[in-house]
Design a protein that fits this description.
The complex is a heterodimer of chains A (about 290) and B (about 260). Chain A is mainly alpha-helical and about 290 residues long. Chain A has 13 helices and no strands. Chain B has about 260 residues and is of the alpha/beta class. The chains are: A mainly alpha (about 290), B alpha/beta (about 260). The interface between A and B is medium-sized, with 21 and 28 residues. Bound molecules: adenosine-5'-triphosphate and magnesium ion. The site of adenosine-5'-triphosphate has 11 residues of chain B, from helix 1.
């Protein structure tokens, strides 16, 4: 009997330590969110979303008068959204098509090479992709631009979309394709009208995760979009981004308190994209 | 024994199919399938039944390495040398597992053959086709109030009947069925068997089955295959009461398979 008790005790001990270690890994996350929230929420108000970044001078005056810093991050929000949108327009069709190709041609040499290259691309430091976009877009267009930033982000999104599309398509039962072909429909319309819609949930989740992955990118944007103090809708002109603003705030002693509010905004955006992606993945599971 | 119609609609001539060179999954099969009848294909697992009927509607083109020789003629047309899409519309197929399209409604599932090919139909034509197809599989009364629901919400038996309706909507000359009831419960199986007997007036049926009593109950002609060869092909009554080949007899009495 004592050995049974001992085993039960061992079991409990194990469970307890698993719980403790899991909690430990969550600690940094909770601390980060807590810190950002506490330091950032005070700056967040209507102006924060609608006004552009204040100049150092305005900020200094406000600080001396013990007032909250005027202005907001509207230029960053617009820039980020615009660049992510353009990047998506480039990366989604390319990535989804490539993912379909890989799933439909699993064993050809070409697919093996493409798969290897996508893995390589996924592991490439983002600053290097920024340099590539600089070479491909900034130099030919003779200037920094939101478009160049979008290209850098698109290259980052591409491997994520390719692989998630491929994996989702691989999960589809072969019977689905057979059913489509057995009705005499051409291969192309089986892929586009049967397989792709059936994989939609997984593909869309992959896209959301790719967006949430690049939305906070900073390094590649420094080399491409550069930054702007005003709201810029023209994609051939330099643009700001929330992540770029955080970096700029960090470099300006008078704008330090804006770091936290901009970070809070970005963090909440990424978190909600992630949660949305997870929920959709659950709902649309095939 | 009643007299049966003996107009051939489908004829196989020296059909050979191999997945790997030199190894024939279907070996030199010649047979005429008669119009308006049900022909069952029996045989132990791996004897080439699926390979045979999949060759008829060119599903094999999914496997690049496969080799086919011989001749398949449906209503006088050489199936191996015309557009596969056309072949598959003339020879519909129902699979072992019900496979309605999960993203489409019941209504769209029935019309899928037309939608996927891109044939435009008027609202009226569509409604009529959906109703007649679902009625011919006995599903209309069960689903008519929920035609916009997903096909995958139906029970297994209903899904299989939906798949039959989807194939019938294209008005095929022949319906190829690969163990269509093996994933279903006895009640659903029964329903489908009754249905097939009714349907044979409209469409010739070739059904692969492991279930000998099913073959005996519904089919007019039976084939027995063994190791890729067509061992015996005769009226079902004759096959079950007085088989001419020893292997057929052994299979039917449960000595193997
Ligand atoms: N995709 C494939 N690639 C290679 N060989 C195959 C393939 N499909 C079937 N075969 C082989 O062809 C032969 C016939 O297979 P088939 O599926 O036609 O048999 P079956 O009579 O339908 O069997 P079952 O009753 O188990 O469904 C078998 O020896 C099988 O191993
Ligand atoms: Mg089979």
């Amino acid at each position: 009997m004592s050995s049974l008790k001992y085993r039960l005790f061992k079991n409990k001990l194990l469970t307890l330590s698993v719980v403790i270690f899991s909690a430990l890994t969550a600690v940094p996350l909770v601390l980060i969110i807590g810190k950002v929230f506490l330091k950032g929420w005070r700056q967040i108000n209507w102006d924060f979303f609608t006004k552009t970044t204040p100049t150092t001078l305005d900020a200094l005056l406000a600080i001396n008068n013990n007032q909250p810093i005027p202005g907001g991050i509207a230029n960053g929000i617009v820039g980020t959204l615009m660049m992510v949108l353009v990047a998506s327009v480039i990366a989604i069709p390319l990535g989804v098509m490539c993912g379909i190709y890989l799933s439909e041609n699993r064993k050809t040499k070409f697919s093996t090479v493409v798969r290897f290259l996508t893995d390589l691309l996924q592991g490439t430091p983002s600053i290097i992709l920024g340099i590539i976009a600089y070479l491909w877009v900034v130099i030919p267009l003779k200037g920094y631009s939101a478009l160049a930033g979008s290209v850098a982000l698109a290259i980052m999104m591409l491997p994520l979309i390719v692989r998630s599309t491929e994996e989702t398509m691989n999960l589809l039962p072969a019977s689905l394709k057979e059913a489509g072909l057995a009705l005499g429909s051409p291969y192309r319309s089986v892929v586009l009208k049967v397989l792709l819609p059936s994989a939609f949930g997984g593909v869309f989740t992959g896209i959301l995760l790719a967006v949430s992955r690049v939305i906070g990118e900073t390094a590649p944007l420094m080399l491409t979009a550069l930054g702007a103090t005003t709201i810029q809708w023209d994609i051939t002109k330099p643009a700001s981004a929330v992540s770029l603003l955080i970096w700029e705030f960090y470099n300006d002693p008078n704008l330090q308190s804006m770091i936290w509010s901009a970070s809070l905004f970005l963090l909440l955006l990424v978190l909600s994209l992630n949660i949305l992606a997870k929920q959709l993945a659950k709902k649309w599971r095939i | 024994m009643e007299n049966l119609n003996k107009t051939p609609i489908l004829s196989l001539k020296k059909l050979c199919v191999s997945y790997t060179p030199g190894k024939f999954a279907v070996n030199n099969v010649s047979a005429d399938i008669y119009e308006g009848l049900i022909t069952s294909v029996m045989g132990p697992s791996g004897c080439g039944k699926s390979t045979l009927i999949r060759a008829i509607n060119r599903m094999h083109e999914l496997y690049p390495d496969i080799r086919i020789s011989g001749n398949i003629e449906l209503k006088g047309r050489d199936l191996l040398h015309i557009n596969p899409s056309e072949v598959r519309r003339m020879a519909g197929m129902v699979f072992q597992r019900p496979n309605p399209f999960p993203t489409m409604s019941i209504y769209d599932n029935v019309l899928a053959g037309y939608k996927l090919i891109g044939i435009k139909q008027s609202r009226h034509e569509k409604d009529e086709l959906v109703e007649s197809s679902l009625k011919s599989v006995g599903l209309w009364d069960e689903v008519k109030d929920g035609l916009s629901k997903r096909g995958s919400f139906l029970s297994g038996g209903q899904q299989q009947r939906l798949c039959i309706a989807r194939a019938l909507a294209l008005k095929p000359d022949i319906l190829l069925m690969d163990e269509p009831t093996s994933a279903l419960d006895p009640i659903a199986t029964n329903l489908i068997e009754e249905l097939l007997v009714k349907l044979k007036k409209e469409v010739t049926i070739v059904i692969v089955t492991h279930n000998m009593t099913q073959a005996a109950r519904i089919s007019d002609y039976s084939m027995f295959m063994y190791l890729g060869e067509l061992v015996e092909y005769d009226r079902t009554e004759i096959m079950f009461t007085n088989p001419s080949d020893k292997r057929t007899e052994e299979y039917l009495t449960g000595k193997f398979g």
